[in-house]
Amino acid sequence: MTKSQELAELGWCLFDHDTKLIDWVSAALPAARAAVRDPALAHLLQCEGTWFVGLDALPNDSEGRINGPDPLQGTAVDFLRSAGVWSDLHPAQISITYPGYPKPRDGETPAAFRYRLNRDAAHIDGIIATGPERRRFISEPHAWILGIALTEADATAAPLVVWSGSPAIIRRGLLEALSPYPPAQWESIDVTEAYQSARREVFETCPRVELPMKPGQAVLLHRLALHGVAPWQPDAQASADGRMIAYFRPPKPGGVAEWLKND
């Protein structure tokens, strides 16, 4: 299959070692290390010190530059540009896991921790739980998710996990719940039950795939791909920086209606 077919049918595609990406990683890694040491970002260290959430923690500009003249480049970027979906970049998330992940997150219920442990905290980016009852709304529709490995890590050191074929199931389930309402209201509609039902169907019918990466590799996830993070296995090794991945998730133009289109 082509990369376009993989993304459409599986919900993900992997880009192999890329020298242009290695150059970017060389610039990004010192900035990521500085973010981890920044006292202002200490609250981003969660799960009893085993996960640095790192939202918006990388100080890149809209082209991905970090303290230098070179923008983010490589085959993954070329693919997104050729598909006509490249967007200005926000400060990347620096998601870092450490040995022992996962531990319970602050405020996490026992049931939520079991889900993190047994189901890799599987989720769809942009569907946000709000309020004391943790009701779900499509609050942050993204165009795509690009993950770039920053450090060396064993394949069992809390790799990214994705369920192949999940976007079609998620799309169908959400559209069934939203179709009674005009698209202009979709962002304000509670999709909790539809989302949970679609996830269950994905778990029952879609292959779970672990996607470990090395520096120089990147993964592109479909915006509706169910994905998460596997537990760090006891014998897994990684660099002293932990298993570190930079994630870009630019917003999807057109909001929820465009986010749910089959493209």
Write the layout of secondary structure elements.
Elements: H1 3-9, E1 12-15, H2 19-37, E2 45-46, E3 51-52, H3 75-82, E4 93-97, H4 110-118, E5 127-130, E6 135-138, E7 145-149, E8 160-163, H5 166-178, H6 192-205, E9 208-211, E10 218-221, E11 227-229, E12 243-248, H7 255-259
Antiparallel strand pairs: 1-10, 2-3, 3-4, 4-12, 5-6, 7-10, 7-12, 8-9, 8-11
Helix pairs in contact: 5-6
Keywords:
29% helix; Jelly Rolls; three-stranded antiparallel beta sheet; alpha+beta; 263 residues; seven-stranded antiparallel beta sheet
Report on this structure.
This protein has 263 residues and is of the alpha+beta class. It has one domain: Jelly Rolls. Helices cover 29% and strands 18% of the residues. It is built from 7 helices and 12 strands. The protein has helices at residues 3-9, 19-37, 75-82, 110-118, 166-178, 192-205, 255-259; strands at 12-15, 45-46, 51-52, 93-97, 127-130, 135-138, 145-149, 160-163, 208-211, 218-221, 227-229, 243-248. It has a 7-stranded antiparallel beta sheet, with helices on one face. Strands 9-8-11 form a 3-stranded antiparallel beta sheet, with no helix packed on it. The longest helix has 19 residues, at 19-37. The chain is globular. The mean pLDDT is 96.
